[in-house]
Amino acid sequence: AKADGRSVYRFFESQMDSEARERRLLEVELRDAIKNNELVLYYQPLVSAEDARPTGFEALVRWNHPIRGLVAPAEFIPIAEQSNLIVDIGDWTIEQACLAAVNWPEHLTVAVNLSAKHFRRSDISVVVKRALAMSGLAAPRLEIEITEGLLMENPEAVVEKLGEIRALGVTIAMDDFGTGYSSLSYLLKFPFDKIKIDRSFVDASSDDEVARDILKAIASLGKTLKLKITAEGVETQAQAEFLSGIACHQLQGFYFARPLDHIDLPHYLLTHVLP
Ligand code: C2E
Ligand code: CA
Ligand code: CA
Ligand code: CA
User: Fold this and answer.
1) Contact 216, 16 (CB under 8 A)
2) What are the pLDDT digits (tens) for 109-134?
3) Which listed ligand is nearest to 111 at the C-alpha?
4) Which of 275, 197, 200 is nearest to 231 (CA)?
5) Quick check: 12 pLDDT over 70?
6) Cα–Cα–Cα angle for 111, 109, 118, nearest 5°?
7) Nearest ligand to the C-alpha atom of residue 114
8) Contact in structure between 45 and 272 (CB atoms under 8 Å)
């Protein structure tokens, strides 16, 4: 029995070793991915809840790995968050997104996901300003989505930086609203323009009346606080109808469109935006 225990232990130990090794390897590779041009942005449409016409796109990063193929952000963003690579990825994403959006019809916006880590550095507003200047994109066409993790570590500094970015005319959205421990106190503390209701509520709304009531409550909270409301993860017509019925402003999800690559995006613009 003793020997068995030891071998089970050794099994876990080597399992952990190989996971740690895998992470380290990914981290090393990720370091080169940006300069090797392996990161790509996909763009998922956001549509008006009123008429389903596109209002803009959210930039979603993918890693086009030479051997592993297309790696989803869930697999490398957490690794990037642990090192400071997430900040480099964020800088790159803002620039690329602004450069892309400046070629779209003028009423369309572009949203970029930034890690809370980005707000630990002092010059975040400089990065945003530089990307706007370099691309020529008008500030109101840029949105920044942030999830609540880590923002509370130094709220005063974050509030100041958010203020600087908003002063440029950029929109700030609280992403994945409702999933954190303290979504409401975040609304109290930080100056958001917009909230994006997490996909989990939309998903549950199909067969759960409580989820529908929560969505209604969030929508009316948004109205009171004069915040724009976006719902993400809309997959069915019934969800879309319910959400526009409770006065959400924007919808996003596979029901309307998936994240689009550089081939599908121009086609989408031609078929959904131009005429
Ligand atoms: P998120 O910001 O909440 O992005 C929405 C995610 O839901 C995207 O997954 C999108 O493809 C997916 N999605 C959209 N509509 C639907 C739907 O109707 N049904 C379902 N099942 N899924 C839908 P993706 O692209 O894999 O991104 C996952 C997460 O990775 C993002 O969640 C975001 O937190 C993070 N992420 C993505 N790109 C970036 C980035 O450039 N920087 C940072 N810091 N994080 C990023
Ligand atoms: Ca997002
Ligand atoms: Ca989201
Ligand atoms: Ca989400």
Assistant:
1) no
2) 999 999 888 888 778 999 999 999 99
3) 2
4) 197
5) no
6) 25
7) 1
8) yes
Residues touching ligand 1 (Cβ under 6 Å) are 44, 60-61, 72-74, 77, 86, 89, 93, 113-115, 175-176, 199, 232-235, 252-254, 259
Residue 10: band (very low, low, confident or very high) from pLDDT cuts 50, 70, 90: low
Q: Give Cα separations from 95 to 20, 36, 47, 137, 148 (angstroms).
A: 32, 16, 23, 10, 23
Higher pLDDT, 19 or 40: 40
Structure token digits, residue 198: 């997490």
CA of 45 to the centre of ligand 1 (A): 12
Ligand 1: residue of 40, 77, 82 to mutate (most ligand atoms within 8 A of CB) is 77
What ipTM describes this predicted complex? 0.97
Task: Note the pLDDT tens digit of each residue in 151-203.
Answer: 878 888 899 999 999 999 999 999 999 887 778 888 888 999 999 999 999 99
Q: How far is the CA of 13 from the centre of ligand 1 (A)?
A: 33
Report the alpha-carbon distance of residue 207 to residue 28 in Å, rounded: 44
Ligand 3: centre distance to CA 146 (Å): 9
Residue 265 has pLDDT above 60, yes or no: yes
Share of the chain above pLDDT 90, in %: 72
Give the atom of ligand 1 at the shortest distance from the alpha carbon of 196.
3
Strands 228-231 and 250-251: parallel
The full DSSP string for 34-47 is: TTTT-EEEEEEEEE
